[in-house]
Amino acid sequence: MKLSRQIPLNALRVFESAARQLSFTKAGEELGLTQTAVSYQIKLLEDQIGEPLFLRRPRQVTLTDAGARLAPKMTEAFAIMGEALSSLKEEAEGMLVIHTTATFASRWLAHHLGTFQMENPGIAVRLETSQEMVDFTRAEADVAIRSGSGEWPGLKSHFLMKSDFTPMLSPALAETIGGVNEPADLLKLRIIDPGDIWWPLWFEAAGIADPDLSGRPFSRYGAQSFEAAAAMAGQGVAILKPEFYADDVALGRLIQPFDLRATDGSDYWLAYPEARRHSKKIRAFREFMRGKMPTFRD
């Protein structure tokens, strides 16, 4: 049988306060109860135990022998519970769990999280990646960085950056066809994940309404960062967010043949439960992102 069904825990809390202060009135003030409510809880506990815990005298109460034996143990028990809850709260506030995509994690967060932890040494970070938007009611998560509309019920969101995209490939692959000089040249090469909705959007923006990608070999890598790795290896043309690959362009591993970018209407957002917007660790990470991303908007 559960303890709460054997002994009324509220009554134990009331008893501990009254015994510590030897006053039903002061116990009521501490716990936000009326003196009548305090008396009722004490009587409930005495009935459960089967013997009196207080001697009631005019304007004064004193502990019986049974009450005097029980009081210090209750004070210790509630102190242990308070310490346990405090420890859990400190641990929860000391660990920031971030959910995002593998691409954003590897291409942006990994380069900056060390700085965040140096600026916030009391906050540890755990990074979780998936392609799905995290359900804060089911998963252990504090914040999420995802692409989308930024409008999610119950969540506070902040704009981080536009999620636009353009084809990118290795210089060596481009040389196999004498260079990529116009958008149609890309169709002479293998397209990485031709089923990606980004491809027809970009080709349409480039003036090619029907690039006919349906007959090409199907490939899906599950994350943009993997497609980029395949493109660097010369395995095809990937459609990528160029900001994530500026270092690879500078090192000659990738080229962006056209300035033209397209978008599917989704952007990158920082999101977290509205009810937790004042959490110390969430506030610290939000302000860090605000300082690191010039395009950050509330």
UniProtKB/TrEMBL annotation:
Any one GO molecular-function label of the UniProt entry: DNA-binding transcription factor activity
Keyword annotations of the record: DNA-binding, Transcription, Transcription regulation
UniProt cross-references to Pfam families, sorted A to Z: HTH_1 (PF00126), LysR_substrate (PF03466)
GO biological process assignments: DNA-templated transcription
HTH lysR-type domain ranges (all copies): 7-64
Similarity section: Belongs to the LysR transcriptional regulatory family.
Task performed by this protein: Transcriptional regulator of the ttuABCDE tartrate utilization operon.
Name under which the protein is recorded: HTH-type transcriptional regulator TtuA
Protein source organism: Neorhizobium alkalisoli
